[in-house]
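Hi,

Apologies if this is the wrong queue. I'm a grad student, and the batch job for DNA repair protein XRCC4 from Chlamydomonas eustigma produced an output file that my downstream script rejects. I'm not sure whether the problem is my script or the file. Here is the sequence I used:
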Amino acid sequence: MNMQAQLCSYAGVMSSTASDPLSCKEIITGNGVFFSKVAWHGTYFDVSLTDGEKFWYQAGVLPPQNHAFSPQKWLQHAKEALFDLVDCHRSFQYEVDVEDRRAQLEWTSTYENGRSFVCTCNLELVEDSIASIRSLMSLLCSSCRVFKVSMSQIHADHIALKGLLEKAQHAQRMLLESNTNREQEILTKCSLLLNSKKKRIKELSVELEAAGAEVDRLKNQLTYIQVLEKSPSSSAAVDYLVATTEDEEFTDAAEPLHKEETNRIRRSVAEVADGYKDEDADMPDKTTEATATRAKCSNQQDVGMSCSGPADLLEDLGF
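Support response: The file is valid. Your script probably expects a header line. Output copied below for reference.
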């Protein structure tokens, strides 16, 4: 009989452990220690304890070199290595068939991180069934230190990694938001600058149009000045300016000059007429002569001759 068989025989176990340690088909020894897998490797035993989360603890216990091995001593070492008394939250349900010496034990384990699992153990008992079950229940309640520490460490690592991940995601979001806000800010500034340039272009267009009108006005003024320089008192120059310019300002300025020239001519004609009147006043008999002259002129006009006097001159001039 090999060491594993001897151990199981000493413990009073009638069946061997299931090949799959994750199946949770446990065996129970006489002193209440339970294992999910017991394997003899020639110089030491592997004891694996599994929970539904696929975590298990392995303890290699080296037997004495002389192979004077005491299964009871080995079980005590394994018990000390695996099951220190630590508070543990577990709930149990079990059924016991005393005649067949079989028991089914089901429990739920909940650890500090909130994770839990349910495991069912099919047991074959050789001692008092109730006592064995009670012993096992007591042991389970005080033997979760290894799992608790492992799960707590895993939970702490998970929280740390989750925190780092959240920080990285937050940094990524901030970077994306920063880039988006920066791009939006640049687009807004470009849009405002473009609108400002468009407005300035319109203003420059208006200024350019006004400048063109000013150039035309200055050209007309230059022409007016040049004409006046050549003939400052000529009514023809004034007429030319009035006829050639479309600028109301200079047209209005030229009209008084035109009127002034016309009035000057009228005054000259009036002076000539006044001279003739003075001569008629100095010679009273001139009335008869004037009458004769008119008759003569009338006769001359009848025969196609021309005759003119001061009155005729005024009439011809439109006075």
